[in-house]
Design goal:
single chain; mainly alpha; Rna Polymerase Sigma Factor, Chain: A; Arc Repressor Mutant, subunit A; 2 domains
């Protein structure tokens, strides 16, 4: 085994679960997430040694692959509707299992591009420029998708207070 192969294997070993979790949050299906991660890693392997930041490349490739998987015609026919629980949980900061399940189900109802932006921005912690680069879109699109995605998520979760209402309430209180 060459040093390059050993480096790639080590990278895959350390990043696989995080990438799989990212893909799951993007597409909502563990098997599709696995396929997306494997496709992304196959592309990365072909470019290994020429990529400056393999972690960023892998994240971007996984999100794109997960989005592409949801665009396939068979996805519309075969996808679950959120009734089944995942076979194993993705790591996240929410402590309550009920809250995690409720949030995941709600996130799956957000349009896929909006969901991808929300996952990259808030779960992966990427900035607006980093998210724009990862998705190959303008920063304005990231901002618009973030706003629309959060609004959709609030509506799905039944959160009544909108950002504009909070600002107005704050100004009235002052």
């Amino acid at each position: 085994m060459s040093d390059t192969e050993a480096e790639f294997r080590e990278f895959v070993g350390t990043q696989m679960e995080a990438l799989r979790g990212l893909a799951y949050l993007t597409c909502g299906d563990w098997q599709v997430a696995e396929d997306a991660v494997l496709a992304a890693l196959a592309r990365l392997y072909g470019k290994w040694g020429r990529v400056d930041n393999p972690e960023a490349y892998a994240r971007t490739a996984v999100v794109r692959a997960a989005i592409d998987e949801t665009r396939r015609p068979w996805w519309r026919r075969e996808q679950s509707h959120g009734d089944a629980l995942p076979d194993r949980p993705a790591p996240d900061a929410i402590t309550s299992v009920d809250d995690r399940v409720h949030l995941r189900r709600a996130l799956l109802q957000v349009p896929v591009k909006h969901r991808a932006v929300l996952v990259l921005r808030f779960l992966e912690g990427l900035s607006v420029p980093q998210t724009a680069a990862a998705l190959r879109c303008p920063e304005g699109t990231v901002k618009a998708f973030t706003s629309r995605g959060l609004e959709a998520l609030r509506a799905i979760l039944g959160v009544e207070i909108r950002t504009e209402e909070r600002v107005e309430a704050h100004h009235e209180a002052v």
